[in-house]
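Structure ticket #2291
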Amino acid sequence: MFDWITTPSLLLGGVVLAAVQFVAALPWLWAIDPRGFERATRSAGALGTVVGGVIAAGVVVAAYIGYKGDAASLEFNGRYVYGAVLHLQLLIDLFILMPNLLVLVWPKGGAVAMAAYREGLRQPMSWLIVLVAVVGTWVSVFIPYFTFGDDFKMMKQIGFDVVMLAAALFGVLAASISISEEIEGRTAVTLMSKPVNRRQFLIGKFLGIMMACLALSLVIGWNLTFALRAQPEFDKINEVVDAMPQQAEATFVPAFTAAVPNPTAKVIARGAGLWFADSFAHSLGIALGFGQVMILVAIAAALATRVPFVVNLVLCLVIYFLGHLAPVIVQVTQTGDGSTALGLVGFLGRLFDVLLPALDFFNMGPAIIRESPLDLWQFAGYVATVFGYSVIYTGIALLVGLLLFEDRDLA
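Resolution: structure written out below.
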């Protein structure tokens, strides 16, 4: 029962697993108490205490692994406890480091971005949207879709749509309210006297809101990984073969298991590798939807320099629907009977298709419902290409916003 005591490699494996979790916790430990963290790094006694604590935690982990022994149970805990907690810690690290790195690179605009980022995450609206999205995701797990074996695909599509819509709703509302209120309330005048110019103000606001949108997307996406594993367990009638996470396993599982020396401890590492394989495959769908969020928030930020909140919201909704419908209108009118009315509709459809963003590119549905599985890395290349398109369109929208803001009287 206590053979783990005489197995140095198992003790080393437990220490490695504990050390990884500790290193992942360093950024948010610094964020909680920056001065105390700095003092601890300069104190030999504090560093010795930390090393002793990591070793003690490693001994506890090794004891648990040696006592448990069952490979299936260890892999389950490695996947849904160790891997999920490590993933969440890394997300917290990202949320802390993003604004601080931006301030380091771009001090004035980064300060505006950090203020907008903190303001966005402190609003009850953001966490209410997260709560509704999480509940909606889990409700979709148990809904019967009557799709003759494709319930998992339907639920997966709904999950990615929920992530995108939650971030887009928050981003558009935050951009419309925050920028409009600062301009109308003359708060922007105070900012411009710091000195912060109009370009730094608008782009800083946009980047801060986008970082908050990214935080919401990744938290809801973390929850989605749990839901996508739970749905096949709840509905065993559907034969689920999710090809892209399986392809990602070939990369992540060997990398995680190679870092741990003991064969029994490798089972925990294998479970963590399986979690991160799922998360990486799902992150491609989240990134695809986030490109759409970025475009919509950029448009909302540009419009907020001139129009009030309600008008901005209506215009963003119109752009969202027309951006999805314009390609369909063009396709339908090309196969019509050539009548004058249909030609006018086709002209408007082509006009909207050229001027408005092609939001249909960001739809994850075709990648999910297809019969033949997609290659993971080819799809990653497609996501990178479409995301590049969203960056270009976002830049154009912000440039228009800067032109509109340049002549705006703030006094």
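Closing remark: The mean pLDDT is 89.
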